[in-house]
Design brief:
With about 350 residues, this protein is of the alpha/beta class. About 35% of the residues lie in helices and about 20% in strands. The protein has 13 helices and 13 strands. The strands form 2 sheets. A 7-stranded parallel beta sheet has the order 3-2-1-4-5-6-7. Strands 10-9-8-11-12-13 form a 6-stranded parallel beta sheet, sandwiched between helices. Strand 6 (about 125-130), helix 5 (about 130-140) and strand 7 form a beta-alpha-beta unit. It is elongated and about 65 Å long.
């Protein structure tokens, strides 16, 4: 099969880009795969950042460029057996033989559908979501369309070296953005810094918090404010690290924090929660115990008290983290179970489902 892939945010280096290029890598093992994007550097930046095998994937100019006519787009689409598109809810008004959408986040509800919407929706072969959380909020947007949940893959193999290498480190990994959607601190990185400072002020000793963040140049000044707020505390920042360096960090850390959605009404604004939580799974694969918010996709990954700890308010975050720092037996139990749970999100399982749905 000839398969085309389009991700309109390929220069973002986020979870969606890792997901879509993982799809490309998977399908290129058996099919002729082309990614449509104008900037070759962005394509190779994603390949390097996430250590993906994209050698068999071709790169062509962006088919959705406004400079191309409807006729030119339609002609290109007709040369492919299938197209896979990362969508923000929009459906391209072109009709390949098979059209698959991947959707990463909850979308605004629609009050009705016009004639054009109905035509475009009927041409979707299937939609695949990154979590039950995302699917729940989007089923009404695409009534009657086949849909599947295909969790993102853990794309590296964390070598289990036991707990001997573990240090007293709490870690969080995520992009830093000055503003995402309607809020300033989408990933709640500032909140986590302040929470850790409270633990230190309350007497926590011999522990440090490491925040590993990917930062674009435009956000560097704002990030300096966050860094300055952490001065005087055992807080370390690791910036724009490659995948193998993040792996090394996971292998040293004991506890993983995630707080996206804290303080938000995620039923009313589900887009503000973490839609899945790929970094949580990556940390668990290395035996890092997740202490994460009981919201969004996080609660699909973690079962409280079995393979990690869930919290709803800051007092729970601080209390459950403190308990872990004092109870080595509990930490070891959750660490072992976290590694077992992470095996449910392997590359092999991801590829099996991708190959099954795109036929």
């Amino acid at each position: 099969m000839r398969i085309g892939i389009f991700d309109p945010y390929l220069d973002d280096l986020g979870g969606g880009e890792k997901y879509m290029m993982s799809v490309a890598s998977c399908l290129s093992k058996k099919h002729d795969v082309t990614v449509f994007w104008d900037n070759e550097k962005d394509f190779y930046a994603v390949k390097k950042r996430f250590n993906l095998s994209l050698e068999k994937v071709k790169l062509e100019k962006n088919i959705f460029s406004p400079h191309l006519s409807f006729f030119q787009k339609t002609k290109t689409f007709s040369n492919y057996d299938a197209f896979v598109i990362l969508s923000d809810g929009s459906i391209p008004f072109v009709f390949p033989k098979k059209l698959y959408l991947h959707i990463q986040q909850p979308l605004p509800k629609k009050n009705g559908f016009n004639f054009k919407d109905n035509i475009k929706r009927r041409h979707i072969s299937a939609i695949f979501y990154n979590s039950h959380f995302t699917k729940k909020f989007n089923d009404s947007v695409f009534p009657g369309v086949k849909s599947e949940i295909i969790y993102p893959p853990v794309s590296f193999e964390a070598r289990d070296k036991g707990s001997s290498l573990k240090e007293n480190i709490i870690v969080h990994v995520g992009r830093f953005r000055v503003k995402n959607l309607s809020i300033e601190d989408y990933k709640k990185q500032g909140f986590m810094v302040e929470s850790f400072k409270k633990m230190v002020d309350a007497g926590l000793k011999s522990w440090k918090f490491i925040l590993a963040a990917s930062i674009k140049k435009d956000d560097e000044k704002a990030f300096e404010i966050l860094r300055n707020n952490a001065k005087g505390y055992p807080i370390e920042f690791q910036i724009n690290k490659a995948n193998d360096e993040i792996l090394g960090l996971y292998q040293k850390a004991k506890i993983y924090w995630h707080a996206s959605g804290y303080g938000e009404d995620v039923e009313k604004h589900p887009e503000l929660a973490e839609h899945f939580g790929m970094t949580t799974v990556e940390a668990m694969r290395a035996g890092v115990v997740p202490v994460v918010i009981n919201s969004g996709g996080q609660k699909e990954i973690v079962t409280d008290g079995e393979n990690g700890l869930l919290w709803n308010i800051e007092e729970e975050l601080l209390g459950k983290t403190k308990r872990l720092t004092n109870d080595e037996k509990l930490w070891k139990k959750l660490s072992e179970n976290a590694k077992i749970r992470a095996k449910d999100f392997t590359v092999e399982k991801f590829e099996e489902k991708i190959n099954k749905i795109i036929v």
